[in-house]
């Protein structure tokens, strides 16, 4: 009984991994954009000794 449960969990984990990889590849084709919004960041830097 416990062996069947582990087998089922293993199969579900493999299917979930395949689904995640497939979504990562097909997501941009389906209209999902995974890129973070680009913005310029400027921060003043004070170097020691000045």
The total of helices stands at 1
Give the mean pLDDT.
Answer: 91
Describe the global form.
elongated
Write the H/E string, N to C.
H
Low-confidence stretches: none
Portion of residues within helices: 55-70%
Strand content: under 5%
User: What's the total number of strands?
Assistant: 0
- How is the main sheet built? none
Q: Please tell me how large the radius of gyration is.
A: 23 Å
Structural class by sheet pairing and helices: mainly alpha
Q: Report how far the terminal alpha carbons are from each other.
A: 72 Å
Keywords: Membrane, Transmembrane, Transmembrane helix
Transmembrane segments: 5-26
Q: What is the secondary structure topology, with strand pairs?
A:
Layout: H1 2-30
